[in-house]
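Input chain follows. Return structure tokens only.
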Amino acid sequence: MFLDSIIALLNFGERYDYNIHKSIENYRAQVNFPMKKAYFSLTAIKNSSVHARSDLFTPTQLLNYHSHSNGTERKSYLSPQNEEWINNCGRITRAVMQDLLVNLYRASDKEQKLFNNEFIKASVTIDIKRDEVLSRMKLVTGKLNGKIDDFGFIDLTKSSEPNGQHNAIYLVDTPETVMKLKHYLNEVSIKHRSLTDNAPEFLLFTVLPTVEWIENVFDKKSFSKKSMTEGLEIYKRYKDILPPLFSAQMGS
């Protein structure tokens, strides 16, 4: 019945068009079957779904699965008005809303499978790039001749590379390196949503693998205790004035 009603409205109703009707008053006067701009919003579906479960609520339950507190549940959802709605005419409407919430706005099996496949592919890509960096990475200490980049990697000439490891990349074990890596992680935590919108490929193929190997280095306590302690102190002291990252990728 609900679907038949919606189909009838769509088939026979006429939408408001400013170029034709000029005003809401003219629209209502001229059209035999005026239509509302929207029947109900996603917020209405969510709220109705919550209302539908309110009669099952008890303040003594250990777990609260709602997005509001028990006090809000008692004050706003278990009110006399809501009780009347539940007892008189609300159950059918709420059953429909609950059905919409569970079925219509839930991803289909095909969509879930596609998402899972894409998620697995992305995870594998990130893992491969992370492992590639970690397999080539060597942590070095002491004074070495070479240019240190923004991450703390040093560009050694072939003559200075130990044991002829030409494919290795060398991360300098210093407080400054710890500070740089902590700053990178913090910038990603702040800007990952903007990167998702503006530079998704950069996020997937560069940022996330970098975050993975940085976290791995910290988790394994690869840096010396002195570098970690001093690096964290330097980062806390200067984090508010460190230069922002990813400005070019976000178009700012």
